[in-house]
Automatic annotation (TrEMBL):
This is Uptake [ni/fe] hydrogenase small subunit. GO terms for cellular component: [Ni-Fe] hydrogenase complex; ferredoxin hydrogenase complex; plasma membrane. Heterodimer of a large and a small subunit. It comes from the Bacteria. Belongs to the [NiFe]/[NiFeSe] hydrogenase small subunit family. [3Fe-4S] cluster binds at C299, C318, C321.
Length: 395
């Protein structure tokens, strides 16, 4: 081997050695130590813990417990796999504001594999994930984005010569817990929609012996994803989950409950067409197929893009993207066909209570609501007519 080639080989080996030395040191640091090494003050650290307590819906005093936990815990190893998906959950995640994605990736967790965000590629990337699993058996979090095709031996999604289903089984075996990001990983989403040509299934249909946190949405809300990671890191346990494995803190209420258009629903004032006067004045989108009344998510609470807006607020009906089978739940008609039944009027009904409620009670509630709304609408119309007549007389 000539001198030039030896020099190049030495450089490559040195870079790889330095990379793994840095990874080892970084992953062994606690969250607080890592921040201190980067020049973050104690005051800013406490401020960060306070923000985290608020985002998780905890009482202010919980900030001290979070600070104590982060001072002693090493950064959490995370392996993030992408299967059948469009990467929208990753796109959502990198836009989180509280905390910022850069803070999560660089300081809170040790992101040992993510094919979109990591520098390494090809064999180096696969070496990285293999080493991460070996070094952190039983202690790493496996995050999965995307559905898993099982038809024809799983050949419709292969990475590095292995099928997604084999890869998932192998990497879940030594994981501490699994986070299923987005509707693709939680319920199959569009890949599993009829006729489902690849046999796409969600993570929970394949892995039965590991705790799974389902975080649905197409995509999942950025701050919800950040909140789940922060909770697991801080308390070293799964957040409280509902009957569908979703964090109750973020999926415990319907979008309808805190919708900015809820008052118009209660008044029976509905948009009939996207360009009518009601649409311009922000009336309820129920008649345009809004699924907010039976969709559990934090859209109307946290909103999107740093709390700027969410689909209903921006003028488009909710399509229920965090609910199972939402692509096929149109009754064979348009996604804009309105719900045939509206759940009861009570605000704050959680998914478990709603699932156990009697159908008759729901129908009765809807009937009462329809009657009250009709009366309210009639009264408002009469008042408007009287006002117009008065203006004409005075004119």
């Amino acid at each position: 081997m000539d001198k030039a080639k030896r020099g190049t080989l030495f450089t490559v080996l040195s870079e790889k050695t330095e990379y793994w030395r840095w990874r080892l040191m970084a992953s062994q640091d606690s969250f607080y130590q890592y921040l201190r090494n980067r020049g973050v003050s104690r005051r800013d650290f406490i401020k960060f813990c306070t923000v985290m307590a608020a985002s998780l819906g905890l009482e202010p005093g919980a900030a001290g417990a979070i600070a104590e936990a982060l001072e002693t815990k090493r950064r959490m190893p995370v392996i993030w796999r992408n299967f059948q998906e469009c990467t929208c959950c990753t796109e959502s995640f990198i836009r989180t504001q509280h905390p910022k994605a850069s803070d999560i990736i660089m300081t809170m967790i040790s992101l040992d594999y993510h094919e979109t965000l990591m520098v390494a590629a090809g064999h180096q990337a696969e070496e990285a994930v293999a080493k991460a699993i070996e070094d952190n058996r039983g202690n790493y979090i496996l995050a999965v984005e995307g559905a898993i095709p099982v038809k024809d031996g799983g050949i419709y999604c292969c990475i590095a010569g292995r099928t997604a289903v084999d890869m998932l089984k192998e990497e879940a075996k030594h994981a501490k817990a699994i986070i299923a990001w987005g509707s693709c990983a939680v319920n199959g989403c569009v890949q599993a929609a009829n006729p489902n040509p690849t046999g796409a299934v969600p993570v929970q249909d394949i892995i039965k012996d590991k705790p799974i946190i389902n975080v649905p949405g197409c995509p999942a809300i950025a701050e919800v994803m950040a909140g789940v990671i922060t909770h697991v890191l801080t308390f070293e346990r799964l957040p409280e989950l509902d009957s569908q494995g979703r964090p109750k803190a973020f999926y415990g209420h319907r979008i309808h409950d805190k919708c900015n258009r809820r008052a118009y629903f209660d008044a029976g004032m509905f948009v009939e067409n996207f360009d009518d006067q009601g649409a311009k004045e922000g009336w309820c989108l129920y008649k345009l197929g809004c699924k907010g009344p039976n969709t559990y998510n934090s859209c109307s609470n946290l909103e999107w893009n740093g709390g700027l807006s969410y689909p209903i607020k921006s003028g488009h009906p909710c399509i229920g993207c965090s609910e199972f089978g939402f692509w096929d739940n149109t009754g064979g008609t348009s996604m804009y066909a309105h719900l045939s039944e509206v759940p009861g009027l009570k605000i704050g009904v959680n998914v478990d209570a709603f699932g156990a409620a009697a159908v008759g009670a729901a129908i009765a509630g809807a009937a009462v609501h329809a009657g009250l709304s009709a009366v309210t609408k009639k009264q408002m119309d009469r008042q408007e007519n009287e006002k117009n007549c008065k203006n004409k007389v005075e004119g």
